[in-house]
């Protein structure tokens, strides 16, 4: 039983929280899950990091994450690399063999036309993977060329194509990209336009910085889907969601 349960007025929040695994060892994951495994449900092995690990470590970590009902997938960058090299079938076989149960379809660093994107979402679904897709470009200049309306249209198109969850790119930095200005502040008008014109349960906002998590929780709600959470800050985020930290206490 949790300590101080009598003070937890809000309790567990039914939501999606995606954590970034940049290079966590098996024992670190084991330890991390003991303390925070109940507070997230999606885990991304960042960008191409998976290529640098022994496959047995990946299989073991995937099993461990799944034992806490946490879905695992590789960064969109690795998927884009496979697509660029025309090795999508090999990519799907490999992630299946290694025990990943989710996929991220993105075109943040490369170009994928809309038909191909829809086909890839379909294929991922047909193969039985929980399918996330991501909107946005990693290069801030290119990303800024999207209008808010275009982002809204892209989100809704992906959902129509079968995407289970659409991620709004925020990168690991959370600056000068998507809904964030160059200081990492939330561009509120963009945020609310996207929120009001897309299904909230299917949109996940990458929000690596605490100020962004607070702003999204206070502006949208404490069950807003959030991602690119640092593995050291999972419990901290959960306290924000439950009003157990000054930033949100009494404001939810
Ligand atoms: O993991 C990735 O491939 C990247 C990480 S970042 O944008 O370089 O921080 O994120 P993704 O959202 O999967 O494209």
From TrEMBL:
Which EC class does it fall in?
lyase
- Provide the E.C. number(s) assigned to this enzyme: 4.4.1.19
Q: Which Pfam families match?
A: ComA
Q: Do you know which InterPro entries this protein is assigned to?
A: Aldolase_TIM, Arch_ComA, ComA_synth, ComA_synth_sf
| Domain of life according to the entry | Archaea
What are its GO biological-process terms? coenzyme M biosynthetic process
Recorded GO molecular functions are: phosphosulfolactate synthase activity
Q: Which NCBIfam families match?
A: arch_ComA
Task: Indicate the family of this protein.
Answer: Belongs to the phosphosulfolactate synthase family.
Name of the protein described by the UniProt record: Phosphosulfolactate synthase
